[in-house]
């Protein structure tokens, strides 16, 4: 099972093409993600059948306890997660290449939770972190996501084939709010330029301040823009009102889904429902590309009292809840692992 040689441009392109086009593909498994995370180390492992890549595992490393490294495969690997022997083989190959001071190799694939799959991984020697973790920030990535399925899953859902059926998929008041935004003069543009990212960042900072949460620096998003510009896999959506940007969103198109990753808004203009207009345009992007899923991202829980869920669920009103398997931990150094877990207690 080979390691990706980043000097082999042909193989890197093949690796990237698999990550981008396989139905299970994820932007966090693209080698460009390793370039974005410039302060992390990286190892790329892949598996081939008859000379064709059919599984990959992108692993990034960072010091997570003093002197010891966490190795993390974000939303990975991209592989058949039912084939645990394959997953373990990917891990074994990665560990050969990883530094000796790695204490943990953590996977968190986007695969549905089931008691049966959880038990199989535990029997195979993994520590699984899912339903026993009560807070969404107890995992690196949220385990519970709101997802709109264009193929019509869930009670009362119909297959979404055009903009009319997409609009009907939402709660009635969400339809009204999208129409209200348009009536008030809110318009939405999309692009991948530096100016688009800078306009997004202004609303992103406003939202972070309003919610009293930390935010990434502008340099992070500018690097993202430089790496993905003109690939077609990255878009910034900007809602304009009264000659200024009042809401925004960043999305990635990988595999069978659109991942709505970042957002911003100016609450001063809340009555014009610009964030709803942004979602409408982003959801139409997924429809135009023939996607199966639109991932709104994580929520604390599937309850109306959860603010994230309350907003996102109105768009995915008919859709089943997406609960993922969570983190699959392959522990290399038990002492380092226990020290690491203390920060989540």
UniProtKB/TrEMBL annotation:
One Pfam family of this chain: FemAB
Top EC class, one word: transferase
Keywords associated with the record: Acyltransferase, Cell shape, Cell wall biogenesis/degradation, Peptidoglycan synthesis, Transferase
PANTHER family per UniProt: LIPID II:GLYCINE GLYCYLTRANSFERASE
Similarity remark: Belongs to the FemABX family.
Listed GO MF terms: UDP-N-acetylmuramoylpentapeptide-lysine N6-alanyltransferase activity
Alphabetized InterPro entries for the sequence: Acyl_CoA_acyltransferase, FEMABX, PG_Glycine_Bridge_Synth
Upper classification of the organism: Bacteria, Bacillati, Bacillota, Bacilli, Lactobacillales
Protein's gene: femX
Protein name: UDP-N-acetylmuramoylpentapeptide-lysine N(6)-alanyltransferase
Keyword flag Nucleotide-binding: no
Tree of life domain: Bacteria
Native organism: Convivina praedatoris
Catalytic activity, EC: 2.3.2.10
